Amino acid sequence: MNRFKIERISLPVLAAVMLWIKTYVVYKTSFNIKIENVMQELILFINPLSFLLFAFGIAYFFNSEKNRNRYVIITSFILGFILYANVAFYRFFTDFITLPVLFQTSNFADLGDSALTEIHWYDIVYFIDIILLFLFMKYKRKYKEFVPVRKVKRRAYFLVAAALLFLNIGLAETERPQLLTRTFDREMLVKNLGTYNYHLYDIFLQSKSSAQRAMADGSELVDIDNYVRANYVKPNKDMFGIAEDRNLIVVTLESLQNFVINNDVYGEEITPFLNDFINDSYYFDNFYHQTGQGKTSDSEFLIENSLYPLSRGAVFFTHSGNELDSLAQNLGDKGYYTSAMHANNKSFWNRDIMYKSIGYDYFYSASDYDITPDISVGWGMKDIPFFQQSVDLMKEMPKPFYTKMITLTNHHPFRLDEEDKFIDEFDSKSGTLNRYFQTVRYMDEAVKEFIQKLKDEGLYDNSIIVMYGDHYGISENHNEAMAQYLGKEVTPFVSAQLQQVPLIIHIPGVTDQGKGKVISKVGGQIDLKPTISHLLGVDTKKAIQFGEDLFSDQHHDFTVFRDGRFVTKDYVYADNTCYSKETEEPVESSYCDKDKEKARLELGYSDKIIYGDLLRFYESSDYRNDNME
Ligand code: GP9
Ligand code: MN
């Protein structure tokens, strides 16, 4: 009986079915894919199958059992590995891997602690089907002679696979029209096409973007230029040049979200220094990060260029050779000495390469700091010594200087040495959230000592200090714990609001001694370049930029996230739903329609510039004579 059954099971089909079931189980257990109805569940269930049948079907072309088995095992392993890599990646980023991210290999070595906390020994269960395949192969070989598959059978097999693929695409199309044009929504792609087809599609996109640069020409800038001109807002004349010729210090505060400002854990302030400092600064409390998969590096890209990062991969990796018109270049032209300061390996996020395109005069990276084990934790040098040593380096810089500093301690998995814990952990099921408050508190201390040191070293008065949070620290994976902390459910509306990061602009002599102001205009990181440029007296009238000066009276309350969500004065568009800010409830979608179009247009134009490397044509006289002025 047993013998009869086993003889009839074909190894490729068995492998495909096991991986199919495994993929579905992984969908349900390891990813947070929102399912709204039975049809979506059905699509999710069948979506891995067509690809797997094709992939394993190739085994039927082999005419020796050894080769066929070898192919099946290797394919199972590779696909299983891709699936598992997505699981590990998802645990941290709540996102699926894209090809450009995968090739960011120079990051892998540094991911160390962060990656390890997301990989567990019991993850071996993700490979259980391969173990079963081995056992099956061993057992089966005893009984069965190898018979190559007949052509007709093979045809029938692939016909079934193709039919399944069309069924899948057909159902997906009815469920989610224009699926493939909304490619920034990876969850939607995986949900409808399946994780394997999604990766194939991703490969296709990658090749397309390489071709795009080759095909691009300056004429594509015409529409973009018109759009940017039409949206230009004039600087506020009281603010224009207010910090001219001062040193500019921009501080990227790692993973700092706005909800911790003026907030506490069991009665203890999380950011006591910043809570005071914002009274002496312009504090923007409606300001959002707009980063994608490139995280910190995306935020750097935004503030330097006032262009959006990409929906897939980190633009620092994918387009590091592009021509740019950055804040650093403009200040360099004005006689500033420009640099970036970050006590990490210089190649992380491909910074050493990309910083050349941005145009910094120098990059102070790990090798410029005195880093010993006692002043390191987690990802590297602790923030307090980082700031201290940085100020010493600033003393030596030619003046005026522009430097952009990036902190590191408040980074997932948010670990600290005992002596650096100034407040208690929060108590929830998420260790990540619990520890987050402590590392934020540590960073706050570091900033306090930094400002003091700038004063002590005589650098403070003649500088302007801009601080902003680069992106979220707590992903949606921790919604339950976050809901416990906030005391309310994390709906898509709340989740979008949680993308707020603090923006603090501190101008000694102007905003200190309590002369600060809370500014509640809706803005985002894209607005920083024009805002800062104007404070330093640099005109941006002719720049190709999508941001607007936050001090301008004409500034529009609008900010779009890289994934297409957006926020206006009265509405938040998230999860394909228009929410009223006032009631926090969904409203008729027409309220969001106009801004939805603006969001789509802007992201599209920005992508076009990056994919086509269009700024290389901007200075060309042909283009300017025809289309400018
Ligand atoms: C690494 C630091 C952290 O150098 O910028 O990067 P992140 O993971 O936040 O993008
Ligand atoms: Mn970061």
TrEMBL record:
It is found in: Cell membrane. Its main location: membrane. It holds the Pfam family Sulfatase. It is a multi-pass membrane protein. Keywords: Cell membrane, Membrane, Transmembrane, Transmembrane helix. This is Lipoteichoic acid synthase-like YqgS. It comes from Siminovitchia terrae (Bacillus terrae). Residues 246-538 form the Sulfatase N-terminal domain. The chain crosses the membrane at residues 9-27, 42-62, 71-93, 119-136, 156-172. Belongs to the LTA synthase family.
